[in-house]
Write a structure and sequence with these properties.
The protein is of the alpha/beta class and about 180 residues long. About 25% of the residues lie in helices and about 30% in strands. Strands 4-3-2-5-6-7 form a six-stranded mixed sheet, sandwiched between helices. The chain has a three-stranded antiparallel sheet with strand order 1-9-8. It starts with a strand and ends with a helix. It binds inosinic acid and magnesium ion (MG).
Length: about 180
């Protein structure tokens, strides 16, 4: 385990099993529909890469980049689009792929933005849900794991751009961010 990690919440093995399960459920729910996965960079890339391979029906992928957190641990509430969608969403069923749903500010903005693209439906799949910190009413349609109110790193999640490559999900030691 990394020295800056206080404890591991979900091991590589547990994550793999859960992602497979969620991928199977999505495949079932979207069978016969035109599905596009929209990954929110950068945190969700690891989840996206695993989830798309757990989905057994045809689907396309797209990426968006928005800023909400900057480099700290608190959401600013300000969402800015850094990279927009490449594909047209008309007639498609959109599944937004997120790493963690925290205050919900980022996703409530994104869901609204995507709802104006002529898509058939928009739903949310998140690797982690931290419901204790929700500030706006946005709920995931698919969740792998619910996490406590702590700062989480690994499996795509960062602090100051570090720790994304840890293969497990863990709690960052508060000393690391001066908490
Ligand atoms: P929200 O807008 O507050 O829901 O935050 C969404 C984004 O904040 C996520 O996509 C993450 O990039 C980041 N974030 C929220 N909580 C954590 C955490 O515990 N660890 C790392 N990043 C986080
Ligand atoms: Mg982040």
């Amino acid at each position: 385990m990394h020295q800056d990690v206080e404890r591991i919440l979900f091991s590589q093995k547990e994550i793999a099993a859960k992602v497979k399960e969620v991928g199977a459920k999505i495949s079932e729910d979207y069978a016969g529909k035109e599905l596009v996965l929209v990954s929110v960079l950068k945190g969700s890339v690891v989840f996206m890469a695993d989830l798309m391979r757990a989905i057994t029906i045809p689907c396309s992928i797209d990426f968006m980049s928005v800023s909400s957190y900057g480099k700290g641990v608190r959401s600013s509430g300000v969402v800015r689009i850094r990279k927009d969608l490449d594909e047209q969403l008309e007639g498609k069923h959109v599944l937004i792929v997120e790493d963690i749903l925290d205050s919900g500010l980022t996703l409530s903005y994104l869901r609204e933005y995507i709802s104006q693209k002529g898509e058939e439906s928009v739903r949310i799949v998140t690797m982690l849900d931290k419901p204790s910190r929700r500030r706006v009413a946005v709920y995931p349609d698919y969740t792998c794991f619910t996490v406590p109110d702590a700062f989480i790193v690994g499996y795509g999640l960062d602090y100051n751009e570090i720790y994304r490559n840890l293969p497990y999900v863990g709690v960052l030691r508060p000393e690391v961010y001066g908490g």
